[in-house]
What we know:
The structure holds two protein chains of two kinds. By secondary structure, chain A is an alpha/beta fold. Helices cover about 25% and strands about 30% of the residues of chain A. Chain A is built from six helices and 13 strands. In chain A, the strands form three sheets. Chain A has a seven-stranded mixed β-sheet with strand order 2-1-3-4-13-12-11. A four-stranded mixed β-sheet of chain A has the order 6-5-7-10. In chain A, strands 8-9 form a two-stranded antiparallel ribbon. The longest helix of chain A has 15 residues, at about 180-190. Chain B has a single domain (about 5-245), classed as Aldolase class I (TIM Barrel, Alpha-Beta Barrel), CATH 3.20.20.70. Chain B is built from ten helices and eleven strands. In chain B, a hairpin with a 4-residue loop joins strand 7 and strand 8 (about 145-150). The two termini of chain B are about 15 Å apart. The interface of A and B includes residues 112 and 116 of A.
Amino acid sequence: xxxxxxxxxxxxxxxxxxxxxxxxxxxxxxxxxxxxxxxxxxxxxxxxxxxxxxxxxxxxxxxxxxxxxxxxxxxxxxxxxxxxxxxxxxxxxxxxxxxxxxxxxxxxxxxxxxxxxxxxxxxxxxxxxxxxxxxxxxxxxxxxxxxxxxxxxxxxxxxxxxxxxxxxxxxxxxxxxxxxxxxxxxxxxxxxxxxxxx
Amino acid sequence: xxxxxxxxxxxxxxxxxxxxxxxxxxxxxxxxxxxxxxxxxxxxxxxxxxxxxxxxxxxxxxxxxxxxxxxxxxxxxxxxxxxxxxxxxxxxxxxxxxxxxxxxxxxxxxxxxxxxxxxxxxxxxxxxxxxxxxxxxxxxxxxxxxxxxxxxxxxxxxxxxxxxxxxxxxxxxxxxxxxxxxxxxxxxxxxxxxxxxxxxxxxxxxxxxxxxxxxxxxxxxxxxxxxxxxxxxxxxxxxxxxxxxxxxxxx
Lengths: 198, 251
């Protein structure tokens, strides 16, 4: 199985590739469109500022490529946010995979960033388990919407993960979420081998 | 809601754990990777590695250690000690650290906090601060508590958060090592002044001390070293105890 981790100078790619390695999968860290296109699965990590990240994607032409991909695709944290239509962080338009969904800054959260382990609720996908504790760290969030497949509560309820066709996104970091996170990544890879359907 | 975090702190010198004690399951308690794995398995929510090496060579060892930890550990970790530039931080974050903590270098050059948060985001930047109560004022100390400054704790914390610190790790030097409990009152005051998460450090000796610090709900995490390293408090039991006492922890 070939898994591509998109490298656009904005992700904690090492932690993600290590998580895959622990599952026995050697990932390719790349920004090369041909490799990304032909991979069996694609992971789109993200840490940092949305505006700088979108600029980097544009420089590499990945903003056009990503929405056209058809293999299992997983955006993590900022990666998930960039899959939305727009983010208030830097006031930028994003990839518009989750059409019409906007990323907003926390206003009524108890403390910002939302940092630490929190519990997933109302999971609608076998790939993102209900009641698992997973690690979050973010200052912007996505409201509940038609694509939401799990929720989390911090001040109010918002989106912990989303899905549209082959595109998955999670606000939390499965690569930093201990055993529960490892299981989720394994299930995501299971989409490739058809062991997992959803 | 977000869980209260339990954070073991590992002091690292020349790539080796200082103060490590051999648990039965461990082959080498001096190996930070093995100790980190052990704590992660026990249910630690996060780890802090504090580099107490002074030499340049030691720094390089630290980056190697971070790489190894990041490839084996699946919980978040912070690295601190001797980070005085964006480049220092970048090297550690690239190697897989989730957050970096700054202490003396941020007091000497407060702009560093802004530079780090602009570059990496404030969620990556932890301000570690050591303070001591002198004539009814909490005063900030540097260099592991050796140098007294004119800075008042509460002013400094407020300024640091405005500059871009995303989390505060406050160690009370009056409580550190006493095993009489955390500096709950000062911690509560810090928590009320800023809107970022607060990590309590210094003074815990009993599981009840963790309950005391979490009870109000304002403190987000508690860090300890020796009670964990010497096996005086075992994390699974600590968490069960906290849960029984209605503290929201990850089991």
